[in-house]
Amino acid sequence: MARADSAKDDAGDRSDHEDHGGDIMKITGAKDSIDEATFEQILEMDDDEEEREFSKSIVYDFFTQAESTFEKMDSNLEKKDLKTLSELGHFLKGSSATLGLSKVKDSCEKIQNYGQKKDEKGEKDITEEDGLKKLETTIKQAKQEFHDVEKVLRKFYNDEQ
């Protein structure tokens, strides 16, 4: 794809970066995992569209929070503590929803429901054993979705690892 609209970027051009021109939805994987309207509301709070210090601090705080929460989920899964897993799912669901991280939010909602011994929609009762099985796979899925969207966000902030 031509880079006609990025003359201002030429001085710092790094060919290993996707040219997103400040539009997160142009980054591969964003459309599947980020609600554009919600994330745009966060970006609107930035004073400087180049630096994006405010939104970056919120997003990077979320990275730390998510990693810590997933560690807690792993230890509580080992303990078979469904109540705590439900609470952790609820907590991370709220944080991810605030940023518009839709896939992570949806998986965390399932974690919350399974921890309450309910099906993924929270409507029907399931057994504790079934809940634990579903929690194990859904936590793995949520972690993968988190790492996928983390890569997208790091690309957006030009901070790929």
Automatic annotation (TrEMBL):
CC per GO annotation: cytoplasm; nucleus
Pfam families on file: Hpt
Superkingdom of the source species: Eukaryota
Keywords: Phosphoprotein
GO BP field: phosphorelay signal transduction system
Biased composition (Basic and acidic residues): 1-23
Molecular function terms, GO-annotated: histidine phosphotransfer kinase activity; protein histidine kinase binding
Residues that bear Phosphohistidine: 90
PROSITE patterns, sorted: HPT
InterPro entries named in the record: AHP1-5/YPD1, HPT_dom_sf, Sig_transdc_His_kin_Hpt_dom
Record-given protein name: Histidine-phosphotransfer domain, HPT domain-containing protein
Stretches assigned to the HPt domain: 51-149
Region (Disordered): 1-29
Natural source organism: Karstenula rhodostoma CBS 690.94
